[in-house]
Amino acid sequence: MSLTDRLAAASRSRSEAPAAGSSSESTAPGTSPAKSSEPTEATRRRAAARDSADPFKELKRIVHGRLVSALGPTLYDAHLTQSDLEQQVRLALQTTLAEVDMPMSSADKSRISQEIADDILGYGPLEPLLRDPDLSEVMVNTFQDIYVERSGKLVKVDATFNDEAHLRRTIDKIVSKIGRRVDETSPMVDARLPDGSRVNAIIPPLALDGSKLTIRKFSEDPYTVEDLITFGTLNRASADLLDACVRGRLNILVSGGTGAGKTTTLNVLSSFIPTDERIVTIEDAAELRLVQDHVLRLESRPPNIEGKGAVTIRDLVKNSLRMRPDRVVVGEIRDAAALDMLQAMNTGHDGSISTLHANTPRDALSRLETMVLMAGMDLPVRAIREQVASAVDLIIQQTRLKDGTRRITAITEIVGMEGDIVTTQDVFLFDYAAGVDDQGKFKGGLASTGLRPRFLERLADHGVHLNPAVFVVGGTR
């Protein structure tokens, strides 16, 4: 049977299917019908809408199957480079499409070819979204509901997966490339794409309506401090201050909520580290892209299928101290690793940088204290606070505002202890009082409070000097 005949037969089988609500079996009077496992009427309507929107769906399925059968093991040949594999796939794809006896325009043929190539070589319907530089996040709620974040706002897109199995194959392709897995015994996974974009996937039975996939994209070129100034995340005066603090080997925490831009800011801060220093980075999924030459990247490892072999952030922090680091950069502190990080900061490894989740600098101190208690050590609260006050020099608060922009809203110095309280002072604060414009954008910026931080003498000891104009009120916005 020719491909055209097969497509026509598939079309007839769909048109001859029983109408929604009909049944070939009768239900006995007085009995309740058994719960059907068939798709709901709403699901059928959505499927019909997808089929009508893409008249070449069956064609793509058949061509895809032929292509996979023709190439076979070539797709998994470890000796082939990515460019050679792409060349072979596209050549085989052109040959297969040329054999199709079905009228279609050159634009349709080009589109079908690209979609099949994306599915085999990349991540299917996600590929065009990942190639779009204007998108910062891709969120797959179900195989047929995909949203993106564009300019800080959520927007639904037309792209869909064929079915749940198609989405699961794509998730497996992503996580398997870095040696991780996702299945019923381990239904949650954090992973990354080759460009460093962060990936989270969660599948049934934890995800009730089907698998969920969230990808936080990274730009092809890492953002620089000039980019953040252009975006309004910070201003020139605060950028000069942060540059001096990093070069002066202060211990810095970047605090903020999910999606506030902490990792981007951490990457920019790390770019201020001098090139002659040895840097160890520690992350759950390697995302940081440092420009220095002497960088050692460590990544935690989840347990295997037997529940063994896990290597935590805390394990890596302990190990990094034996690697003669000049700087330790931890992607995020979220558990008992906080205790080891504080001890590292207090025992000669100054200049360390990390992030944590918190809504304000004061909340960041409280959360740090809580995470230290998670280590199971019976430490007095005052002792923990003394460790925090001694170890941490600066907290940078990052916030995602209602207008979708990501701004640094506070740069706060840890001054010391007064009684049992860790004392702080704000060096820069975001000016919310400036209000918003007609488009709902915040007009304010990061402004100096006029207070001169006490760590200026420490910076001077390291040969780092700041222009006093940085702290002039009203001249830094």
From TrEMBL:
Region (Disordered): 1-53
Biased composition (Low complexity): 8-40
Highest taxon in the source lineage: Bacteria
Biased composition range(s): Basic and acidic residues: 41-53
Gene3D superfamilies assigned to the protein according to its UniProt record, in alphabetical order: 3.30.450.380, P-loop containing nucleotide triphosphate hydrolases
Pfam families: T2SSE
Family: Belongs to the GSP E family.
Name listed for the protein in its UniProt record: CpaF family protein
Species this protein is from: Nocardioides hwasunensis
